[in-house]
Amino acid sequence: MWPLYAAGFTTAFGAHGIAANLGGFSADAVTSLLVLGGLLALYDGAEVLLKPVFGSLADRIGGKPVLLGGLIAFAAASALYAIADSPGRLWAARLGQGAAASAFSPSASALVARLNPAAKRGRAFGSYGFYKSIGYTLGPLLGGVLVWAGGLRLLFTVMAVCAAAVALWAALAVPAVPPLPRKRQTVADLARRLADRSFLAPTAALSVGVGFLPVSGAAAGLGTVATGAAVSVLAATAAVVQPKAGRALDAGRLSTRTGLLAGLLITAAGLAAAMLPGLAGVLLAASLIGTGTGLITPLGFAALAASTPEERMGQTMGSAELGRELGDAGGPLLVAGVATAATLTYGYAALAVLLAAGALPALGGRRRAADGRNAGGSVSR
To answer: Which pTM was predicted?
Structure first.
């Protein structure tokens, strides 16, 4: 499992480590905000388009070949800019990194599911999410240090070496998981498995927290150190909660329905807390959003893996990660749109209401189940 966790760290570190440093340290290539936006969109755009494709390919030929091919391609794309810096190479490298991550990220998720029995998938996805969160947390910080020490080319060099090392490790340690015969599936079958809010909700709230909590802190007169610490609290809390939630699920101490319901409500409460003024509101929001998203993510992926035929695991994980990308983009767009028309406080409120509304069907289902048990008890007596 460790090479798969390392692959999760690599994609997260590559996404945030480079993105956080493009604008400030590549003046020759990033000549305007429009150019910066294009470079950032290249990576995510490639993932949105290609993750379901490579997930389906992993089902056809096996997850390990797609995992190794993606890691090697990521190393090659990073080396393209590390060897010689030019604006054209930067664009090509960023596009190549996004396409490569689209291959090895869903393959790693599918292998996490295939290599673990259902009783251990909560722990496995919790640990996988933990190392991805560490990559998201450390990426901007370590990336900034590397760029300060040797420029953007040094960061790309480290990313190339990291991906190549993980590819070698995976080639030696990850067992081959042969593809399985696949039954015919309709688009409706896939849509039913992905209809859960478990993949849009956490990434939407997490992205909003990372992007907009510093704005709230600045409006309250807080410095960059204080607001940066709040964002670190959010990411660190999510990283700590995910393995604990996965272990609780496997041990039977937490059900999927209860965990997802609690995660949605806690995340909504965190967004509501972001409406409070001052440092207390920012820190409370960060801790609650981190806790809620840390609950939702491993439970959602474990539940999806449990409901997916083994021969379709790659396709489903690729499509689920597409849902994460859409949530990552949709949450900030919703908050920004409402904030533009009103204020940021109303933007937080809109997303909080949306997440709380997502918990209502689960609450209704629990109430109906309880009523059914009570009715059954009355008849039996």
So the answer is: 0.71
